Amino acid sequence: MNKEEILAKSRQENKNRDIAGIDRAKSDSRFAVILTMLFTCLYAVMTLLITGKINYGALATAICMLFSMQLHRAIKNKNTGDILCASVICLFFLLLTFMAVRELFGFKP
Description:
By secondary structure, the chain is mostly helical. It is 83% helix and 0% strand. The chain is elongated and about 70 Å long.
């Protein structure tokens, strides 16, 4: 393939798409997720320090964000390592969610 054919193919594949806008949106989304995770973890640590109790709901929220990103990657790439990682994060998320719901309704072990 020569340069012109490659450019023509690239234009055809990216028709009606703003590549710079898509990259900007991805970057903005990543920043928002990271900032939200940091805040959620900070809130959970503050709750632990002040009340002496673990806030499972806040931790489940942070892990949910990790799980959703990893699940998207696993679905998109169909890589065994990504699928395994998403599965492990899912189990951790489900455990934290179970603990949060149990705490919400006041069930004690």
